[in-house]
Amino acid sequence: MSNAKKIHFAMLPDKYEPLIESLGECRSEESKADRKYKRKQKLKKCRKNFLKVLRAGWNYFVLGVQEFATNYTMPYATSFTVITEMR
């Protein structure tokens, strides 16, 4: 069997007492703080991306309004040629 794994055993001293309970409490406190920090960073990143989208959308909206105003003030024949050239 070439897929067999080798396992190494180590004997523990008789007086060894694992501190599972205290480690569990520390880990839960650390994990709560860690989760809170990660959540805060995620929200910060989402807020940043959302604001980028809003800024870009606003810029396109203003550009569209300006183009509409320019075409609205021009004579009909001129605005028709401007629209066909843009496409």
Automatic annotation (TrEMBL):
InterPro entries for the chain: RDD1
Any Pfam family hit: RDD1
Record protein name field: Uncharacterized protein
